[in-house]
Design brief:
CATH class: Alpha Beta
Bound molecules: zinc ion
Radius of gyration: 16 Å
Number of domains: 1
Number of strands: 8
Helix content: 10-25%
CATH topology: Peptide Deformylase
CATH architecture: Alpha-Beta Complex
Length: 208
């Protein structure tokens, strides 16, 4: 397993619709293993292939080690594999209700804001052997993470779903992602690393 290079906004691959996977071979298994390694080492609970520069419909999620009052340790420890789920060619086949919650994204380090999601979903996907699977999720971090990651496969980003576009713009410009200068001033990891530690707090919902 290897830690892959993360892709940061405004890289074009993040805005592209990813391609369907049709061959379930060793290269897909290796990609899935490397994506899990990258997600755990980046302290995330989800990761989609475009975020590591691969425009394919595969995403990985592991929310088993996170709950809200675990914020303290979330920042300090690299989460160990718990119950990872590998989704290939996922599709939401049923959705209802809505819930609002705080989200972050590994492709936008430091940026967090409220996003509205369906509160209950049913998802069809394939596993590493290509076998069809179905999963239901409601009202929790898994429900939110699946929707966030599937958006990445559609080339949609959580900034497009912010409850308050104003907060969204303020938050983005704070980290050099402001829409008017997204092109001019691409993301600057150094600027994040120089921030005083309080501003680098990683809420427990650091999605992929
Ligand atoms: Zn994300």
């Amino acid at each position: 397993m290897a830690k892959l290079q993360l892709t940061y906004y405004p890289d074009d691959i993040l805005k592209r619709k990813a391609k369907k996977i049709t061959r379930f071979d060793s290269s897909v298994r290796k990609l899935a293993a490397d994506m899990l390694d990258t997600m755990y080492q980046s302290n995330g609970v989800g990761l989609a292939a475009p975020q590591v520069g691969v425009s394919k419909r595969i995403m990985v999620i592991d929310v088993s080690r996170r709950d809200d009052d675990d914020r303290e340790s979330a920042e300090k420890t690299v989460p160990k594999p718990g119950k990872p789920i590998i989704f290939i060619n996922p599709q939401i086949i049923k959705e209802e209700g809505e819930m609002v919650g705080l989200e972050g994204c590994l492709s936008f380090p430091g940026v967090f804001f409220e996003v509205k999601r369906y509160s209950s979903i049913v998802v069809r996907y394939q596993n590493l052997a290509g076998k069809e699977q179905k999963i239901e999720a409601a009202g929790d971090l898994l429900c939110r993470a699946i929707q966030h990651e599937i958006d990445h496969l559609e080339g949609e980003l959580f900034i497009d779903k912010a409850v308050s576009p104003l907060v969204d713009q303020l938050e983005l410009s704070k980290y050099g992602f402001g829409s008017d200068n997204a092109e001019q001033a691409p993301f600057n990891l150094e600027s994040i690393q120089q921030l005083p530690s309080t501003e680098k707090v990683v809420p427990s919902v650091m999605l992929g």
